[in-house]
Q: What sequence folds into this?
């Protein structure tokens, strides 16, 4: 990978993290614009999602670490955090967008 591509990827990751952290700041300090269930879910999962993603990035694991030898419970324990983080990653910036533009 060229040096230019690495810098571009680094800038993109920093931009995404800044937006996500700013959205979390708005989530905890401002009034909410989404359904209370989604906001409460996001407030619980938001800190966990940051740590979960950092662990996945640091250990260089796949997002869905699934193979054919896993049991059903192992599959669910691998899929549920991903689904929770995706829901939080959608709801948190959406709430920030609605708070800023309303």
A:
């Amino acid at each position: 990978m060229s040096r230019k591509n690495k810098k571009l990827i680094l800038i993109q990751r920093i931009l995404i993290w800044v937006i996500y952290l700013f959205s979390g700041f708005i989530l905890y300090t401002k009034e909410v614009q989404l359904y209370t269930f989604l906001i409460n879910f996001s407030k619980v999962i938001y800190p966990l999602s940051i740590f979960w993603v950092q662990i996945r990035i640091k250990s260089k694991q796949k997002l869905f670490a699934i193979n054919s030898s896993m049991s059903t419970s192992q599959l669910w324990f691998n899929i549920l955090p991903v689904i929770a983080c995706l829901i939080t990653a959608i709801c948190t910036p959406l709430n920030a967008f609605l708070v800023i533009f309303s």
User: Anything to note?
Assistant: The first helix runs from residue 3 to 29. Helices lie at 3-29, 36-58, 72-100. Residues 24 and 47 are 9 Å apart (CA to CA).
